[in-house]
Amino acid sequence: MVGSAGQRAFDSDEQVAASPIGSSHRVGMADLPLGPWAGAVVEAVVRKSGRVWHADPDCSQRPARVETSSYRQPDTGSLQDLVLPENLHCNPPGELGAYRRAANRLLEYDAETCGAEDRLAAGGLSLGLLDERLQHGDHDLEAVLASGELAAVWAVVRQRRNGLLVALRDAADSGSERLAVMVLADWVRSGRTRREHQPRYTEFLELAVERLERHRLAQGGADRQIANTWLPDWLVDVSTGTAPANATARLVGQVVGSADVRASHDVPAAVTKKVWTSVGRAWESLLTKLAGEYPGDIVAVFH
């Protein structure tokens, strides 16, 4: 049996329309040339009455008794136009598989860059990208990306990443109060221990409990438990680069939308939103105050 253009195109639900690759364009399969896939015929097998296909003869999960189909690839176009069976478990061996894996790596890399750019525009810092140890992956895939038909697109996405890293390094000034806030948020979070919380964490917890109790937002004295549920998430958000005000906005949205909170009492959503906004603002103020009390070398860990 030979597959036709009627088969689902590879990763069609993740594609974007082909357009010139620029600083604001997220790369998709439509931007990537067919390379060795042009005109190739791919054989895939499936267990009789099964649904999972295999294109690698050496796949450990390849069934013994199978039906085989052949899928001829287009001579022109992009990787968006690949003709493959649905539920394909493994790539063909050799050059075709390596090229497809390299293409996927390119898309993941570019999506990570674009996400970090969006986060930076919203006030967040993806400082983990500055760790060069995390930038190197499979050397074989990188060799495929650096040469051949993917090289031109790979050069563009690498240039985009380098521009992002410059912007992040500029933000990662060792005297920045912002970075001090990030480091302190992580330090405060580490004070949440299983038996008895450290004073640095308890101080933040009490700010929330006092406001929740004042407005009787929880039933049965559950204020501390509720605050202890949401405070770590807020601290993680801030410590990983989200601006404190944005972390508060996200927290409020999550609390108001929580099914547990909605079911636990009859307090109007507007009141819940107001109280939790005041909790977040109190946390922001305390972190800022602590950051001002520490010397700039507190953020040397980022350099």
Tell me the layout of helices and strands.
Elements (H helix, E strand, L loop, with lengths): L1 E2 L37 E7 L5 E2 L11 E7 L21 H28 L17 H8 L4 H21 L5 H13 L9 H16 L8 H17 L4 H14 L1 H6 L4 H25 L10
Parallel strand pairs: 1-4
Antiparallel strand pairs: 2-3, 2-4
Characterization of the model:
There is one protein chain. The chain is mainly α. It folds into two domains: 2-171, no CATH class; 177-302, no CATH class. The protein has nine helices and four strands. The chain has helices spanning 94-121, 139-146, 151-171, 177-189, 199-214, 223-239, 244-257, 259-264, 269-293, and strands spanning 2-3, 41-47, 53-54, 66-72. A four-stranded mixed β-sheet has the order 1-4-2-3, with no helix packed on it. Strand 2 and strand 3 form a beta hairpin. Helix 4 (177-189) crosses helix 6 (223-239), helix 4 (177-189) crosses helix 9 and helix 5 runs antiparallel to helix 9. The longest helix is centred in the middle third of the chain and has 28 residues, at 94-121. 28% of the residues are buried. The model is unreliable at 1-22 and 297-303 (pLDDT under 50).
Features:
303 residues, mainly alpha, 2 domains, four-stranded mixed beta sheet, 9 helices, 4 strands, 6% strand, disordered N terminus, disordered C terminus
Shape category: elongated
**Proportion of residues in β-strands:** 5-15%
Structural class: mainly alpha
Tally of distinct domains = 2
Largest sheet: 4 strands, mixed
Can you give the mean pLDDT?
Answer: 81
Q: Mind telling me the C-alpha Rg?
A: 26 Å
- The strand count comes to 4
Q: What's the helical proportion of residues? A: 40-55%
